[in-house]
Design brief:
The protein is of the alpha+beta class. It has three domains: 2-157, Beta-Lactamase; 217-297, Helix Hairpins (Orthogonal Bundle), CATH 1.10.287.130; 307-462, Heat Shock Protein 90 (2-Layer Sandwich). It contains ten helices and twelve strands. The protein has helices at residues 2-41, 54-64, 104-112, 152-200, 217-263, 268-297, 311-322, 344-360, 419-429, 455-462, and strands at residues 71-77, 86-89, 117-120, 127-135, 141-149, 307-310, 329-332, 339-342, 367-375, 378-385, 434-439, 445-452. The chain has a five-stranded antiparallel sheet, with helices on both faces. A five-stranded mixed sheet has the order 7-9-10-12-11, covered by helices on one side. Strand 4 and strand 5 (141-149) form a beta hairpin. Helix 4 runs parallel beside helix 5 (217-263), helix 7 (311-322) runs parallel beside helix 8 and helix 8 (344-360) packs antiparallel against helix 9. The longest helix has 49 residues, at 152-200. The chain is rod-shaped and about 160 Å long.
Length: 463
């Protein structure tokens, strides 16, 4: 803005000075033109005949002219050889420091000049002049009519306007700077909040958020930053949960392995039994680590990759794989028809886990039913066993990590309590998915994967 204001003031000054120069040039041309016309066609009022005396011509013309305040009209008559030319002037005051009619050297220079117009640079101020020479029959100048203009005051007015413009622009620049400072401060306040919040963030405290006001780009930045903090908080929480879970669950098998190894004697039978126990604990540790890593991957966006799947084929595949988990009375209860948009590998993994859970809590000969059905826009895939069921106080906690029912049925499994957590993570990984627990008719528990069929997406894909 400072450059723009300076450019405006400078341009205005240049325009004003150019106007002064143009007006002076027009005035000089007008005065010299009027004298040339008067010299050519004017007559002496005393005789009624054309002028024969240059002095008389100049005197009569000067008596009839009215000059501007900064303008001088004069006549110059050649004197004896080497003498300054005589002058004829109007009886008026010129408001300049040194008028031309008092500057003999300047008059002499103008009279002797062969040019008809020019600019005389003096210490007392420049003079713009023009003249019409009256020559003798021999060609030498006998007299001359001179128009002189002193542009100093006109130029001073232009410079004064320039200074006023500079002062106005300076004040406007200060006001604009102050307003811009305040406005920019208010606009950038959320950015400073973002910087402050980022500086105060630590791994232990990710709860700070930026207040969002308005609907501009800064508000969008604050929302994006808050969303990033939400993702970071979830990531750190998942990391801490993973570390806590791993430390909690691996501590027991490590202690068992260490204790058996420390107490192991030289007896071959004892050594064999110790190795068997240690191997079992190491296998359990391996399963725990694999399950924890799988749960840690559930936070990734590519954990579930849905695709069109034939429900009947998926249900049959799950049934075939589940039958190998134990000697139970396996039944394929019902099979849904049609397609659904889901991840077949993750759904199979969840259903096999539910079947394994049913095997662990039933005994040989008891029945386990596997099936699927379509209800409106949703798909249900379920595993129903005929065991003693789940106690009401356990229904809310069995899907949490490392939590088991307090009175579940049958033989106690060797798992770490992560199986149902993995099933819930797979269900929730699908849009609108969830895992449900229902009572089985006649006794037992039914675990259901309730997933959105997403028929709209399916139609778009087939089209």
């Amino acid at each position: 803005m400072a450059v723009a204001f300076a450019a405006v003031a400078t341009t205005t000054r240049s325009i004003l000075l150019r106007d002064v120069d143009s007006r002076v040039s027009g005035l000089l041309a007008q005065e010299t033109g009027e004298f040339a016309h008067f010299e050519e066609r004017g007559v002496d009022p005393a005789t009624g005949r054309p002028f024969s005396d240059p002095g008389r011509l100049l005197r009569v013309f000067l008596e009839r002219q009215y000059a501007d305040p900064d303008e001088e009209l004069m006549g110059l008559l050649a004197g004896p050889s080497g003498a300054d030319p005589a002058k004829l002037v109007q009886d008026r005051e010129i408001p300049v420091e040194l008028p031309l009619h008092r500057d003999a050297a300047a008059r002499r220079q103008i009279f002797a000049s062969t040019a008809s117009t020019g600019t005389l640079h003096r210490a007392a101020g420049d003079v713009r002049w023009a003249k019409v020479a009256i020559a003798r029959p021999g060609g030498e100048p006998e007299a001359a009519f001179v128009v002189a203009f002193h542009p100093g005051r006109e130029q001073a007015r232009a410079n004064e306007v320039f200074r006023i413009l500079l002062a106005i622009c300076g004040v406007a620049l200060l006001l604009t700077t102050g307003i811009a400072w305040v406005v920019a401060g208010r606009i950038l306040k959320p950015v400073r909040l973002v910087r402050t919040a980022a500086a105060q963030l630590t791994e232990q405290d990710l709860t700070r958020r930026i207040p969002v006001r308005g609907h501009d780009d800064i508000a969008a930045l604050a929302e994006t930053f808050n969303a990033m903090l939400d993702r970071l908080e979830r990531a750190f929480a998942a990391q801490r949960e993973f570390v806590d879970d791993a430390g909690h669950e691996l501590r027991t098998p490590i202690t068992i392995v260490r204790g058996h190894l420390e107490l192991m004697g030289d007896d071959p039978a004892e050594r064999e039994e110790t190795i068997r126990l240690v191997t079992d604990e190491l296998d359990r540790m391996s399963r725990i680590v694999e399950d924890l890593l799988l749960l840690a991957r559930t936070e990734r966006p590519d954990f579930v990759t849905p695709e069109p799947v034939q429900l009947a084929e998926l249900t049959a595949d799950v049934f075939v794989k589940a039958r190998t988990l134990g000697e139970r009375h396996w039944e394929l209860a019902e099979v849904a028809e049609g397609e659904a948009l889901l991840d077949p590998q993750r759904v199979t993994q969840a259903m096999v886990q539910l079947a394994q859970n049913a095997v662990q809590h039933t005994v040989p000969g008891q029945s386990i039913r596997i099936g699927s059905q379509v209800l409106d826009s949703r798909v249900e895939l379920y595993v129903a066993d005929s065991g003693p069921g789940v106690q009401p106080q356990d229904a809310e906690v069995i899907f949490e990590r490392f939590r088991r029912g307090t009175a579940r049925r049958g033989t106690r499994g060797s798992g770490a309590g992560l199986g149902l957590s993995i099933v819930r993570a797979i269900a929730q990984g699908h849009p609108g998915g969830r895992v449900l627990l229902r009572r089985t008719e006649g006794g037992g528990a039914t675990f259901v994967l309730d997933l959105a069929r997403e028929e709209e997406h399916m139609t778009g894909r087939h089209t």
